[in-house]
Records
---
Amino acid sequence: MNPTPSCVLIVDDEPDLRELLQLTLLKMGLQVLAAANVADACRLLARERCDLVLTDMRLPDGEGLQVVQYIQQQQLDIPVAVITAYGSTENAVAAMKAGAFDYLAKPLSLAALRALVKSALQVREPAPAAGGEPRLLGGAAAMRDVRTMIDKLARTQAAVHISGESGTGKEQAARQIHEQSARASQPFVAVNCGAIPETLMESEFFGYRKGAFTGADADRDGFFQLAHGGTLFLDEVADLPLAMQVKLLRAIQEKKVRRLGAAQEEAVDVRLVSATHRDLVQLVEQGRFRQDLYYRLNVIGLAMPPLRELRDDLPQFVARLLQRFSAGSEQPQLDEAALQALLGYHYPGNFRELENILERAVALASDGRIRAGDLQLGASGAEAALPGAQPQDGGETLQDYLDRVERAAIDKALQASDGNRTQAARLLGVSFRSLRYRLERLGMK
Ligand SMILES: Nc1ncnc2c1ncn2[C@@H]1O[C@H](COP(=O)(O)OP(=O)(O)OP(=O)(O)O)[C@@H](O)[C@H]1O
């Protein structure tokens, strides 16, 4: 028995475009309904079963955005994609923020249309069950909010920007969004934007043709081609040089890239997720990050809470990690002082730092016990626990206070490592890049 074909509602007042869309969708074996304005679209939505809506933005009696809003208000749970005029970034962004699943820019590419329809219709199938341990542990309210948001994000194609301090699980969140999305069976490509030499960026992102430059002895795919159909995760996106930001913006807007040495552009279908621990808004204000790219990447924002906001979860995290790091051997027990030290620590390097501390402690533990000394807590947490480190009366702002604590922690780590930054970063439980950034921010060069 054949399942009932999915039904797509097209909302467009241009008869030619409506017909083109209709024919394309019918050829894909789908049922099609059509409306020429907002009012007819809402009437049809109220009456008919519908699995996807494609709506033009400009309609005779209103905007496509109203169709998106109607679907949201009525809680119809139907993905809706908007068709926007060439180059109208604001419209596409507004529609995605209002809950649209994706957008198509005019002139329409039928290949892009077919790809969008396929992934939109898959979204309605239940997400695959996550196997094994969840990527993001934690039951505190802040982490529950993150999970709820991830569930929502997995149901749209909107570009997501994940903010949060170093080690808060931004990459894990990005992977989780991908794994819960309709793109789960397609590639997830993670790129550390700060780790690619500037001269290689274009070829790494967009690929190249054989002979494009000396040494290019075969065609090679770039990140965009590798992530085709799936998700492209741009980590440390703030590190992209301005020239590359322009090229990236263009690729995102056009949904097309051109390999080095190629005459033609090729269509790419990627969902973008980006992350940075830096303050992108501030970088935009300073002219170091393009505002238009920021809007494109940050259609929906996801903020990862620092570990110090998940204090209630700490005992659970500690127990899980001890179990993980002592797999295959006897699990050492924390003595009371060690437990108290862990619970009172500040964790500037967040979850990653906690992992490092416990992995090291398991290795150092003797006679099945972990003592406070085995934890080798970084200086910052201890500093934060000292009475003298409390915010001072007389108007010291929270930021000044935190900067002071951070500066002291970094100083101590640098002293302990004889000025070796790589080692200091390890002691602090942060990446080298993160330490370099902090040194710069605090004027500690
Ligand atoms: N809530 C969590 N539950 C379990 N593990 C977590 C959680 N948050 C982070 N981790 C772990 O912490 C480590 C760092 O996570 P991840 O790389 O995702 O952080 P990040 O924010 O992307 O870091 P960076 O800013 O340095 O790139 C990983 O090993 C990850 O598994």
---
Amino acid sequence: MQTPRPRTGRPRTAENRSALSGNAGRQSEIDLLRLIIDNIYHGIMVTDSEGFVTHFNKPYGQFLGVEPADQLGKHCTAVVENSRMHLVAQSGRPEINYPHRIKGHDMVVQRIPIKRDGKVIAVFGQVMFKDVREVSKLAKKLTMLESKVELYEHELMVLRSARYTMDSIIGMSDPMRELKREALKAAATHLPVLITGESGTGKELFAQAIHHASARRLHPFVRINCAAIPRDLMESELFGYEQGAFTGALSKGKPGKFELAHHGTVFLDEIGDLPLDMQPKLLRVLEEKEFERVGGNSVIPVDFRLIAATNQNLEQMVDDRRFRRDLFYRLNVIPLRVPALRERREDIILLARHVLDQILGDAPGLYIKIDARSETMLQNHDWPGNVRELSNVLERIVSSLDGDTIEPRHLPFRLSNFPKVTSASKDLNLREALLRAEEDILRSALTLAKNNKARAARLLGIHRTQLYKKMKKHHLPQE
Ligand SMILES: Nc1ncnc2c1ncn2[C@@H]1O[C@H](COP(=O)(O)OP(=O)(O)OP(=O)(O)O)[C@@H](O)[C@H]1O
């Protein structure tokens, strides 16, 4: 096709046309559009339906080394080598991401016909990449990023599962095997799970293992300790708040735990401590899977699986009207009870070995033995603080162990039913025995109370100040 000659005497700029109309508002709008076109990063050229240039921006001028204003009115083929703008005007078909060779560079361009009433009135051309190698670089970068994401997802899964699978829950006793089987079945559903059991039995461990065995494993596991959140902050912690919802609120607002757990699992620990006035709000989000932020008026949908745990007797609490019956039924869809350590004594030594291995870590050549009498003492103890108490006892022993074997003399006083005064117990005098017993009981109470001093003092039946005094006497950490 023959290239039409440039028409120099007939400027076709939008500016000129609107200057003729004499409309000031229209003029300023056109100025703005021209400014926008000139500030776009990519080179841009617009032609009319015959291929004559009506717009040509500065970046394109800089790229080609020409003055933009001088190109207006010329035919596109006289301005840009290999131009196809006039052909697109004729065919009316857009050319998206086409290769285009200019000045020895392979570029990537778009040519889009602009139509009015079905007729092409202009063609918009844009240089997408000044060098086609940019595209392949970008594509490579994208592939690289995609594989990195894949790698991280995999690592995340390995990391999480390495810590929290059912296999990492130690226990070969019948009740534990059965419990793991039930927990795996629960993981395959999206139903709420209620885990009960004494303090320190491993309820949280089960909650995490269920999450990581479920289809939600790549999404967040959000733990909320109902006993630890101050009452007046509970609602905003759970549901978040909007800007200016209350004094001290962050100016941007803040998402709550449920929002953060989208597609994942919410673990409500110590659910028995959820204040009564919060219970209907929890029930609503469980039933409707949507909530409103504090101070907000839009409803936010959320998808999560709920796992709740408690060491309290929720049924009794329902009877005492301290826990809502409707909420209890909603939570108790799949009940799992983690047995106390004394109900699975065959797991005690297994757990002790596991804890010792964890304490010693990767230290090469280090191995701590437990002699037969100590094993019997560990197995015979009732462990009111369960696995947590066992861990604490072993940690303390290891920190002051003088050899590589745990012997009865290393074990806390409470593990022996009563001190046997034998000829071997040369150093045992009453004062020392009482001191050891006192320290031991203090430690147990603190373990049971999860280091909450007021609770520990209540357990011991003494005043808190007295507890602090005794802790000081035995050099127990006060924080
Ligand atoms: N079967 C187990 N195998 C390995 N570690 C365990 C096991 N059970 C408990 N533990 C460990 O004991 C400690 C207490 O466990 P966890 O916090 O899960 O108990 P819990 O029942 O949720 O306690 P609480 O009711 O006091 O919150 C944790 O350090 C946990 O890793």
